[in-house]
Amino acid sequence: MSCELKKKDRVGVINPIFTCQPAGAQVNIGVKDTIGLVHGGQGCVMFVRLLISQHFKESFEIASSSVHEEGAVFGALNRVEEGVDVLLMRYPDVKIIPIISTCSTEIIGDDIDGVVIKLNEGLLKEKYPDREVHLIPIHSPSFVGSMVSGYDVAVRDFVNYFAKKGKPSEKVNLITGWVNPGDVTELKYLMGEMNVEATVLFEIEGFDSPVMPDGNHVSHGNTTIEDLRGTANACGTIALNRYEGGKAAKLLEKKFDVPAIIGPTPIGIRNTDTFLQNLKEMTGKAIPESLVRARGKAIDAITDLSHLFFADKRVAIYGNPDLVVGLAEFCLDLEMKPVLLLLGDDNPGYKDDSRIKDLQEKVDYDMEIVMNADFWDLEDRLKNQGLELDLILGHSKGRFISIDYKVPMVRVGFPTYDRAGLHRYPVVGYAGATWLAEQMANTLFADMEYKNNKEWLLNVW
Ligand code: SF4
Question: E strands, 214-276, where?
Fold first, then answer.
């Protein structure tokens, strides 16, 4: 029995699981009155915008400095200057423009910090003297990290820019990490029941947008400048994900003495219990009877399924590391066997991650955790190495492996565009535990029927 944390044993990537740092940095879509300006080729925005729009089935706005050949050789800061001016003219309500670097503009050495100073001293003073405008340089070269670290860096840089010491408040900073509107709703429900006031970073509940009588709406985030300023005065920070928000939590602790709790991602009953206990310790607020009941309902739903249908089911999980580890922990609680975890980058922090160490100590069967993994790591094991799976958990980019190798799959993570409405449902909290367990069960049931594999069981349970 072993559980090894290893790097994939090839150079190069075949069908990547992750995209690049600027994609994660563009998730500043969760901040109100903000339009990011991505400094690079237009494709660095186009494909991310497409992914985000496909995932949420909503429209939103993001800009590109659209660097062309001349800029790639001689530098393209003039395009940032023009881009900022155009955005301010075109969008009178925009207050924040993060300037997000990419691989090309980092390589040519464009000084986005310098251009921000120049714009603050020049354009903003001369042309927009009465307007509140914040330009935030965010360095996110694609040859470092992944979309996961891009998100982490962006939250840290926003917080670092705005957080300002003032009067202490009873609010908690809740850094959600890369989640869905349904998750934000569930987190707000849990905190609301405990009477805990929170600043949610970055707040993307609005990406489940309505069509209103006056027309369709472009989606916007809900975290405000005031929220960001107030993060320095909170009674504490809870970052639900270690790799997507952990940096900001540490910064607030170091710079402003705001105590930080990082993780665990509240996926499953166990981790949701810990989240509520952490909130209780941080705020002194009690966990009410209503949440004990919500927990009980989730346990009841899960108990109906776990031993009968989930026991010993072999699962592969891929995606963002906090999500993957949280799902693996939940699967173990359901008596399943997550046999293969694929993490799409090689963050050196993984080897010291206590949750991964815990998995390594606890599993009593063979489990592989592969860093810097790609989809070939999954496909090759299925095709050539005799890996047998009952279920795959991951985002839509792995759908062809599920189809080709006839392994049922539950879509979870980002992006999930080949199933309807998934962004409306939580995977966190007690509601998320119920939803996940029932999605997995229903997916297995459909597979049992499709393959005529003990489908009669469904008549009698
Ligand atoms: S890898 Fe580089 S060029 Fe490609 S999208 Fe990412 S930042 Fe842009």
Answer: 236-239, 260-262
Give the relative orientation of helices 289-303 and 268-283 as an angle to the nearest 10 degrees.
Answer: 170
Q: Is 145 in the pocket of ligand 1 (CB under 6 A)?
A: no
pLDDT at 368 over 70: yes
Q: DSSP letters of 347-395?
A: -GGGGG-HHHHHHHHH-SS-EEEEET-BHHHHHHHHHHS----SEEEE-
367-371 β-sheet, strand order:
3-7, 367-371, 337-343, 314-319, 391-394, 409-411
Q: What is the mean pLDDT of residues 295-318?
A: 96
359 vs 219, higher pLDDT: 359
Q: Whose CA is nearest to atom 8 of ligand 1?
A: 44
Tokens of 409: 């799959």
What's the average model confidence in pLDDT over 439-453?
Answer: 97
For the chain, give me the number of helices (H) and strands (E)? 19, 14
8, 368 contact by CB (below 8 A): no
Average confidence (pLDDT) over 181-208: 95
Q: Separation of 20 CA from ligand 1 center, angstroms?
A: 6
Confidence of residue 28 (pLDDT cuts 50, 70, 90): low
Check if 142 has its Cβ closer than 6 Å to any atom of ligand 1: yes
Is the pLDDT at 30 greater than 90? The verdict is no
Cβ atoms within 10 Å, residue 442: 13
In whole angstroms, give the CA distance from residue 121 to residue 110.
18
Please tell me the distance between residue 402's alpha carbon and the centre of ligand 1 in angstroms. 28
Average pLDDT over residues 41-52: 93
Nearest to 330 by CA among 243, 459, 433: 433
Q: What crossing angle do the helices spanning 321-333 and 354-362 adopt, rounded to 10°? A: 30
